[in-house]
Design goal:
Elements lengths: L9 E7 L3 E7 L4 E7 L5 H11 L3 E7 L4 E9 L4 H15 L7 E10 L2 E10 L12 E5 H15 L10 E5 L2 E6 L2 E6 L11 E5 L12 E5 L10 H11 L8
Parallel strand pairs: 1-4, 4-8, 9-12, 12-13
Antiparallel strand pairs: 1-2, 2-3, 5-7, 6-7, 9-10, 10-11
Helix pairs in contact: 3-4
């Protein structure tokens, strides 16, 4: 058994790397964490057990952003939801060299002045995300999950990241910067290309860089029991449990 079943619907966040799966159950009163080695378990095994033993469970699975295709388009303000949907379908057919049945897709509609801004996401189906079980599985950006987890943990430490200061986040070997409804990911080896930042947020110690010498530094250090396998996977899976149906944090 993964987690002790509860009467109410449970939300479980799932993250993974080359060696491990991390599952986090967050009922907002307590957090349970389970680790599974890939040498002994497959994603399909885990999802099948969740579907069998936890009928009321919603699973949010983080997906690496390198597999997610994004496009930004604008439509006139008079477009209805049906018109937007039809245009999105046509764009997918034109832009992607694969059939619609071979992808997952979603889009976000944002009203800006006198137009609709559409953020379109597409993901090719493969064995890492293809699910043969009937249970609902929600796929979410790994970066968004990570940022939600970081914000949640820092709020618990009375650290406010939503105070109007422009934040940059170190995630793996990348730097993430948010700008309203968009975000930019830059390789740490190409830091000279980044835009201005005011505060640098990291999981663990930050290796100081002269590009950020005028920045405020925030370092989130996790308790040893949570980082004995991977702090990054834990924070990502925790952030997945905080999914609210919106693109950003």
């Amino acid at each position: 058994m993964f987690f002790k079943p509860k009467n109410k619907q449970q939300v479980i966040g799932l993250s993974q790397d080359e060696q491990y799966f991390c599952l986090v159950l967050n009922d907002f009163n307590s957090v349970e964490v389970k680790w599974y080695e890939k040498t002994a378990h497959t994603l399909q095994d885990i999802l099948f057990i969740l579907n069998t033993e936890y009928k009321q469970t919603k699973v949010i699975q983080s997906v690496s952003d390198k597999f997610i295709w994004r496009k930004y388009v604008f439509f006139p303000i008079h477009y209805t939801n049906t018109m937007i949907y039809k245009q999105v379908i046509e764009l997918l057919k034109q832009e992607l060299p694969i059939a619609l049945e071979d992808i997952y897709f979603d889009y976000q509609v944002i009203k800006q002045n006198e137009v609709y801004k559409i953020i379109l996401y597409a993901l090719i189906k493969n064995q890492e995300i293809e699910h043969s079980v009937s249970q609902e599985v929600i796929l979410d950006s790994e970066s968004f999950c990570y940022l939600r987890g970081i914000h949640h943990l820092l709020k618990q430490q009375d650290c406010d990241l939503e105070d109007g200061i422009k934040n940059s986040y170190i995630f793996k070997d990348k730097l993430i910067q948010l700008e309203e409804s968009e975000f930019c990911i830059t390789d740490l080896k190409k830091l000279s290309n980044i835009t201005e930042s005011k505060r640098l947020v990291s999981l663990g110690k930050i290796q100081k860089n002269k590009i950020f010498e005028n920045n405020e530094y925030i370092e989130l250090i996790l308790p040893l029991d949570e980082e004995r396998v991977s702090s990054c996977l834990y924070v990502t899976a925790l952030g997945a449990t905080l999914w609210n149906g919106k693109g950003l944090i």
